[in-house]
Amino acid sequence: MKHFALFFLLAILVHQEYYCFNVEASAGDGFVRTRGIHFMLNGNPYYANGFNAYWLMYTAADPSQRFKVSNAFHEATSHGLTVARTWAFSDGGYSPLQYSPGFYNEQMFKGLDFVIAEARKHGIKLILSLVNNYESFGGKKQYVNWARSNNGQYLTSDDDFFRNPVVKGFYINHVKTVLNRYNSFTGIHYKDDSTIMAWELMNEPRCTSDPSGRTIQAWITEMASLVKSIDRNHLLEAGLEGFYGQSTPQRTQLNPALNIGTDFIANNRIQNIDFATVHCYPDQWEQNSNEQDQLAFLNNWLNAHFLDAQYALKKPILVAEFGKSFKDSGYSTYQRDQLFSTVYYKIYASAKRGGPASGAMFWQLLTGGMESFDDGYGVMLGQGSSTANVIAQQSHKLYLIRKIYARIANERRWKRARVNRRSSRFGGNRGGQIGF
Which reaction does it catalyse (predicted)? Predict the structure, then answer.
C-alpha cells in the first residue's frame, strides 16, 4: 500500500510539474544515451542506482574465483542496482593487464571479458575507467616510468603523463586496445557492446603541477576526441571529482582545501564529454569537521553541482563515488546510513522534478570472500544490513520514476497512433481539429 501511494504521488507530480517532458519512443538498441540533461535508454529517461567494484577484472582473471563476481552481481540486482563502475586497467606491477606499453596479459583480459559478459547476463550496465591517477594498479606513475626506462624520456613529474607525447602515445594505444577488444565470451567488440554504459578517461584526474587547469583541459579535450573517433556508440565522462576551478572563481569556496588542477565547469563543457560526475567524501575532505558540518558540506556540494549540471553544463550528472569509512573516528552504521540517505534524497528530489541528477554509485560493493579488499568503505549486501535496506529503497524509488516515464511514453504513443488512424480514415485533419 505504501508503494502504491508513492507511485500515485509521483504520477501526480510528473503530470503536474513536467508532463511536457519530451519522451519519445524509439527502437531500443540497449545503449544509454543523453538528451539534454537526461540519460535515455530505449527512448525513455534512465535513472540508475549503482556501485563501484574496482576488483572485478582482477578477481575474474582467476577462473576459480569468478563465482565472486557472479555473486556480487546477483546481490546487486536483488537490491535493484543496475550500474557498476570498475577498472579496465592494471598497468605493470602484480597481475597486470598491461605489463609493458602495448603488451597485454590475455588471462587478465579474459577476466574483463567475463565481467562484461556476466554484467550483461544480470542486466547491469558498466562504466569502465581506462587509467588511474594514483599508483594503485599502476596509474600515471607507471606510464611515466615506462617512458623513462623504455624510451629514455627525461621526465621530472608524474604529471608529465598529461603532457609528454610518448606517454600520451602509450595511453592512446591502451584506449584503442580496450575499445577494439573482441570479447571471448560474448563475441562482441567492446565498442559495440551495449552492456557498457560509458567510458571514463581517468579515475580522479589530478594535475597539481598546473593549478591553472590548462594542462588537464587540453588532455581531456585531446583524449575525448580520440575516444569518440573510435567509438560513437558509448557515452564518455572524464572521471572528475567535481572540484571547481578558475572558470568559476565564485564556486571555488565550495571546494575542500585542495587545488588539483581540474575545473568542473570547463572540463565538462568539452564537447565530447557527455555527462558530468561528482565524488563525495566529506569524511576525507572535511576531517576536522564534526558529523553535522560534514553533512552540511555534502548538501551544499551536491546542490551546487546539480544546479551547474542543469544550467551551466546542460548535461546529466552522476554521483560516481561516495561513501563513509568504518575507520573514521566515532563511526557508526547510523552515520553511514545518514550519509547514504542524504545523497540518495538529493538524487531522488532532482529526478522527481526532471532535474539532471540520474543516479549514484557507492564505494564500494564487496561480497563473501572479498574481506581483504575492504578499505573501510566496503558494503556487503549479502549480510542484510540497514545500509543495504537504504540502498534497496533508493533503487525502488528510481524504478518507480522510470516506470512513470514509460507509462507517459506509452500514453503518448497510443494517442499519436489514434490520431494517425483517424487522420488516415478521414483523409487528413480537414477541419484543423481532432476530437477525442
Answer: Random hydrolysis of (1->4)-beta-D-mannosidic linkages in mannans, galactomannans and glucomannans
Give the Cβ contact number of residue 185 at 10 Å. Answer: 14
Bridge-based pairing state of the strands 38-41 and 32-35: antiparallel
Q: pLDDT digits over 105-127, tens only?
A: 999 999 999 999 999 999 999 99
Degrees to nearest 5, angle at CA 284 with 317 and 49? 35
Q: Rounding to the nearest 10 degrees, give the CA dihedral for residues 330, 258, 275, 390.
A: 0
pLDDT at 74 (0 to 100): 98
Query: Cell 598546473 belongs to which residue?
Result: 210
- Do residues 203 and 132 touch, judged by C-beta distance below 8 A? yes
- Residue 51's H or E segment, with its range, is strand 48-52
Q: Give, for 10, the enclosing helix (H) or strand (E).
A: helix 2-18
Select from 245, 324, 332, 320 the least CA-distant residue to 284.
Answer: 324
Interacting residues of 416 by C-beta distance below 8 A, sequence separation 6+: none
Q: Which of 204, 237, 241, 286 is catalytic?
A: 204
- Which residue is catalytic, options 118, 200, 241, 321? 321
- Domains assigned to the chain: 30-406 (3.20.20.80)
CA distance 11 to 417: 23
User: 166 and 238 in contact (C-beta within 8 Å)?
Assistant: no
Which pLDDT does position 426 carry in this prediction?
57
* Interatomic CA distance for residues 296 and 289, integer angstroms: 10
The question of whether 321 is a catalytic residue gets the answer yes
Q: Is 247 exposed, middle or buried (0-12, 13-18, 19+ CB in 10 A)?
A: middle
Who's near 311: CB < 8 A, 6+ residues apart?
A: none
Residues 276/316, Cβ–Cβ less than 8 Å: yes
d(CA 221, CA 388): 39
Residue 337 and residue 393 in contact, taking contact as beta carbons nearer than 8 Å: no
Active site residue 118: no
* Contact call for residues 33 and 369 (beta carbons, < 8 A): no
